[in-house]
């Protein structure tokens, strides 16, 4: 029995071996955990040949689970040429291009795959899944490999959703915010052209963090966040919290184009013109977009898996096709594609267990939301109804209650690290009445 130490993030549940900032979401709130690593050999290990398609946290979670059970006949096929990495960290590449080679950027290091004898195929594309003969055919340039399997996991993620106005545009300089290659494309344009005006379509997590990175990359660049809603993060923040955050963005040079429906994107040489439905327009040299993720379903569809918005799975991540599983951004459970780091991690663990016959139901639980753009922004639980608010400049706290019970909260600034853990606990415990009031009064003293 080996006792190991790891650190788990309070925000996204990511685990890592150091207590620095979370390598996934950037939170500074990590909890030390001790865990026992069993050196057990599964009776199934000699019979199982597992092939996993896709290189993200879902596939890594499957692999970790299988390794713990003594299964090492695993092949991981990654379309990208890089080892699986923290996709949430890609904005750092805009400020520091070599960061994509930094060990902290990768979920696991090369030695992890070598030590556990994982057959990892980087830069390979799956061309065919032969169910009859249980073979996956993958290709890279002129290299072709046939990999046998007894269990197949589709963790192929998703592709950036392209609204009609992007699909109809002829410009190659409209870049999604999704991968290392996208960040390298943006850096390349900055090196080869004069970029003065950048528009970012979509003011969610990715859009906000990219706007932050671009402003830090060049103070001469004007960055405009274009958002269809009438304020920033309407699902995560109250109107008051959203106003505080928008003021921070504006003070740091981020322009906001809110309540804006895009009609078309026109191109005149290297210049792009975004036309809005109200007749207004903005001119820019570069457009980036983050308009959600569309689950990748083509492979699953080709072998008869049931498809809706994603690959339909049950609570054990099983598809309707025998011995074929799906997890992560590509899958749909109970009519929803969750598309976030924490759910992908959980689904991967459930999938790994199901492969070896240990059936643990996947249960979605709402997770906290964290973004850093000039200031930390944190949201958890239900953000509506009665609230108690405390503010000192950009330091902000708003706690939401229902019938005296704490149900959610918004935090901005350094107060996040002081309150977030207790806030999550109070929501989980359904803290109410006098105890809730005393807790909130305690949090107010941190200002």
From TrEMBL:
Q: Does the keyword Phosphoprotein apply?
A: no
Which superkingdom is the protein from?
A: Eukaryota
**Cofactor annotation:** FAD
Top enzyme class: oxidoreductase
Keywords for the protein's UniProt record, in alphabetical order = FAD, Flavoprotein, Oxidoreductase
Recorded hits in SUPFAM superfamilies, A to Z, give: FAD/NAD(P)-binding domain
Pfam families from the UniProt entry: Pyr_redox_2
According to the UniProt entry, its GO molecular function terms are: rubredoxin-NAD+ reductase activity
* EC code(s) of this entry: 1.18.1.1
Residues of the FAD/NAD(P)-binding domain: 49-348
Q: Which Gene3D superfamilies does the annotation name?
A: FAD/NAD(P)-binding domain
Protein name, per record? Rubredoxin-NAD(+) reductase, putative
Q: Which organism is it from?
A: Entamoeba dispar (strain ATCC PRA-260 / SAW760)
